[in-house]
Amino acid sequence: MARRQRVEAEPAYVLHARPWRETSLLLEVLTLEHGRLALVAKGARRPGSQLRSVLLTFQPLVLGWSGAGEVRTLTRADWAGGVPLPQGRALWCGYYLNELVLRLLAREDPHREVFLAYDAAVRALAAGEALAPVLRRFELAFLAALGYGLDWPHTVAGRYRFEPHRGLVPLMEGESAPGEVVLSAQTLEDLRAGCWSRPATLAEVRALTRRLIDHALDGQELQARRMLRELLE
């Protein structure tokens, strides 16, 4: 039998909400210490419910809940404020982040680094930062937390082909790799330094994260990615 849980105040974000029975909402949330959870917000759809204006996506919240089993009951929801809603293409990037977490992060699998990376990405999108670096930073941090991180070569030189089951494989001088994800030594150095000013680095890392995500999803496509393809490509 599942142990009954009571949490009083936990930093969280709402990833998705849908109607639940007549007056409630079923929430998927990402939390700092407890990972992704399903919570039912009882009465949240009633006219005049204070929860309606609080349980918004891309807003830092403090949540409380209680109960046992797969779906817990929301007992507290407070706005932790200060972040405007991302606009335009940044908003679609936020939907992409949410879908990525919903599809790849199992419920009740805590990863503080995922929450912190998500929080940083949402704030960067809201602040109007360049979209591509924001997405790549989050993807790399998220995938590393799930066990899809890169094993860095001891010395960096030349070019490397990425293979999902082998990692980075050095290419011989003059060797071609058509259709493969190839990273230059400069791209790897940029990643280590957190430098995103070089267009070639952004392009190569984008190809890398796409390959990793496709591998993790086992060929399934993200709906938000189709929208981003139209908006950003």
From TrEMBL:
Segments traversing the membrane: none
The keyword Zinc-finger belongs to this UniProt entry's keyword annotation: no
Domain DNA replication/recombination mediator RecO N-terminal: 10-80
Keywords: DNA damage, DNA recombination, DNA repair
Domain of life: Bacteria
Role description: Involved in DNA repair and RecF pathway recombination.
UniProt similarity note: Belongs to the RecO family.
HAMAP family per the UniProt record, alphabetical: RecO (MF_00201)
Protein name in the entry: DNA repair protein RecO
